[in-house]
Amino acid sequence: MKNRLGIILLSFIVMLAFLPQGTQASTGNESINEKLGLPIVVYGEALSDSQKNEVADLLEVEQHEEVDEFTVTGQDIANYIGGNPNSNMYSSVKIIHKGDGEGINIDIVTPDDITEVTKEMYYNALLTAGVENADVLVASSVKVSGHSALTGIYKAYDAKGVALDEDRMEVASEELDVATSLAEEGVDEAEVSELLTEIKKAIAEQDPATKEEIEQIVQEQLNNLNIELSEEDRQRLVDLFEQMRNLNINFDEVRNQLDELTGGLQDIINDEGFWNNVSNAIQEFFDALTEFFRSVFN
Fold first, then answer.
1. Which neighbouring-strand residues pair with 69?
2. Can you tell me the mean pLDDT for 113-120?
């Protein structure tokens, strides 16, 4: 029993050590940011009242004094990305606008219920669509693919008067479809996200002028990551990024944000001070535990 207690306490102390500096628990009464506007919550239309209440709890809606609330419908998915207007929409999102330069932060609150779309897939798709500087939380009370959350994000921005380019939104949706399709066909989800990220970075560096150059970049990154695709899937990737190239997306800007995403974890891994803090925390825990048992048995 004592060993189990020690393991639990050790796990807790290590978990605290891994939290970023400055992270604080919600107080339940966060003030309104008058510059950036109210947080936005978009619920899937197919949710029952009880499911909607559950999602509201998952997204911690009550921590804000006020929020703007919307509902995403099947007609929205048809309007924004050309989807099926009869679709049932379950996955829901909360968006908190951030200041310039803070980038996008994605949190899938219910990872077991968002079965196809990963955090990195959302991140890549939102960058493609032109979304930036926001905390985005995704949740569902039932198991869903997660596609409707992307439409909900688009609707939220539209409702708040932030114009996202329709062509970019459609390409972002296609990117999400390609990503989830590759994952369904056996490519590891993390590898899919890494592949999309590396292709975008290579496009930013090489500035391809033709579809043939896009094909070369796609094949190079497939080779670099040792990913084998069918000719059909490889062509879907080429077509996707050819569409992006024709949209004149600023890939340098996209690359900078992708570097922030991929570099954050590496910075932690390489941070000697961080690991010293972890080591010190563990040592202090064992010292305290030793003193505790001495006091009990002496």
1. 41
2. 89
